[in-house]
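Postdoc handover notes: sequence design on the structure in folder B. Input tokens:
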């Protein structure tokens, strides 16, 4: 099973504050949709709550939670990451896309094969959620596409694809 992470992070690796995004970048949302369409997406329960009822059509939402017997609308809940991976394998998926939040990213980065990162060219020192630093001795940048700020995008950003180095 290929494990991939999809994240938008600022220059200081900030990803959110008060369970919300720090920016509005419409092209990043399109990027997210294109990468995740038809795929299982895994997130922590707090990140699920940040969706505020949005069901992510075309994707299967999987949620990690420590709460036993938790049920959530439009989602399948797992107590353990390995159970979510097993579910994906049983349903014929070859890749699981991890969408956060910060603790989930940090915990499962060592198991990750690909990182699809939207690097937002700004810094947000008051953020309360962060993506862990990418260990560049373990991952290589294989593609980067830079975009300037414009009328719809307050910040410049770069779509990056990082791939784990094969030993």
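Designed sequence:
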């Amino acid at each position: 099973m290929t494990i991939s992470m999809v994240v938008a992070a600022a220059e200081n690796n900030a990803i959110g504050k008060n369970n919300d995004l720090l920016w509005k970048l419409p092209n990043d949302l399109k990027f997210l949709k294109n990468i995740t369409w038809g795929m299982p997406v895994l997130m922590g329960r707090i990140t699920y709550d940040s969706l505020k009822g949005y069901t992510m059509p075309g994707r299967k939402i999987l949620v990690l939670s420590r709460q036993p017997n938790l049920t959530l609308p439009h989602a399948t809940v797992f107590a353990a990451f390995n159970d979510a991976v097993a579910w994906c394998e049983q349903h014929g998926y070859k890749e699981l896309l991890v969408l956060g939040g910060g603790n989930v990213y940090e915990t499962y980065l060592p198991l990750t094969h690909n990182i699809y990162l939207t690097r937002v060219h700004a810094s947000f020192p008051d953020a309360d959620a962060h993506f862990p630093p990418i260990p560049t001795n373990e991952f290589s940048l294989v593609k980067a596409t830079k975009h300037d700020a414009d009328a719809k995008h307050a910040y410049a950003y770069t779509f990056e694809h990082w791939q784990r180095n094969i030993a």
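Context for whoever picks this up: The chain has a mean pLDDT of 97. Don't rerun without checking with the PI first.
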